[in-house]
Amino acid sequence: MKNLNKNLIPLLIAFLMIAISVGCQTKTSPAEKPTEQLMKEKEIVTNKTKVEMETTYGTIELELWDDLTPKTVQNFVKLASSGYYNGLYFHRVIPDFMIQGGCPNTRDKDRSNDGRGGPGYTFEDECYRNGEEIIGKIDTNKKAEAVWAKIILPHIQNNRTPNEDIVTIAKECQAAHNFDPVMKHDLKFYQEKTGIMDKVYEQELIAPVSYGTICMANSGPNTNGSQFFIVTKKDGAPWLDGKHTVFGKVTKGMEIVHKIENLPRDKNDNPNPENQAFITRISFPK
Q1: Are residues 199 and 69 in the same domain?
Q2: How many angstroms separate the CA atoms of 71 and 102, rounded?
Q3: Which element (helix H / strand E) includes 251?
Q4: Is residue 18 part of a domain?
Q5: pLDDT tens digits, residue range 116-164?
Q6: DSSP letters spanning 10-70
Q7: Residue in 241, 251, 178, 252 with CA at minimum distance from that of residue 210
Q8: Residue 153 included in any domain
Q9: Which of 102, 149, 246, 253 could form a disulfide linkage to 227, CB 3.0–4.6 angstroms apart?
């Protein structure tokens, strides 16, 4: 076990890549319900914040989901109420995909730094919520992925000499490119081997990245700031599910979104200077 630690970093990177790829495969499986149906089932929202986003091409009305993504909504409302978004333009537009805005660097004349700015802080994703508690057998991919994320990976990351049985299972997952090896044992096995006795829950996707939703842009897990995008692809973008917080949807003005989506743009998908779509004001009608 003395030489294990020096190999941990590349091993963990490989494991994280497995988690990402397996997650994508699960979400895009043909057995999954269509995005529109999933959206209706997950959209149990009692508190909504109404938004009017005025742009140089017209007004986009949205509703933000306070109950499902409270931190993300609070952040957007705080920034918008301070005038942070006023004068910024949508710096990335891709037909049949999305329009992206919220970068403070679009205030200056240097187009090369568009998309690289933020409010000076980051905060965590709100993509999943706890589902059923896992007890006993680990007999589904969702349970195995939860045990991986909440027990196996933290144990390996936080111990210089992690348990040999846990490391062996992790290597088996790496070789198989899935979480099937985790299903060989029950939850008690992993708790006893790692000493991590916290409850583990299946993770449920709060909302898919579907048509008309507003989502946080990021540079990786838990790197949210001020940038956001609105999805224009009619079938949604399921490959982004769980990677970007979905915190609301357009309720009126998708024709404006589509106008912005199709603006003439440069090779970086940034609308040409004479075509820029600026956010002029964001308000919160009662």
Answers
A1: no
A2: 17
A3: strand 246-252
A4: no
A5: 999 999 999 999 999 999 999 999 999 999 999 999 999 999 999 999 9
A6: HHHHHHHHHHHHHHHHHHT-TTSPPHHHHHHHH---S-EEEEEEEETTEEEEEEEETTT-H
A7: 241
A8: yes
A9: 102
Residues of the chain with confidence (pLDDT) below 70: 1-45
28 is a domain residue: no
Please, where are the H alpha helices in the chain?
Answer: 8-27, 35-42, 70-81, 141-147, 153-158, 164-176, 187-194, 254-261
Same domain? For 252 and 159 the reply is no
214 and 122 in one domain? yes
Within 10 A of 67 (CB to CB), how many other CB atoms are there?
12
Report residue 54 as tokens: 């005025």
Task: Give the strand order in the sheet containing 228-231.
Answer: 92-94, 98-101, 228-231, 213-216, 246-252, 58-65, 48-55, 279-283
Q: In this predicted model, what pLDDT tens digit does every residue of 257-269 receive, in sequence order?
A: 999 999 999 999 9
Kindly provide the b/e burial profile for residues 190-225, where b requires at least 16 CB atoms within 10 angstroms of the residue's own CB: beebbebeeebbbbebbbbbbbbbbbbbbeeeeebb
223: tokens are 């790197």
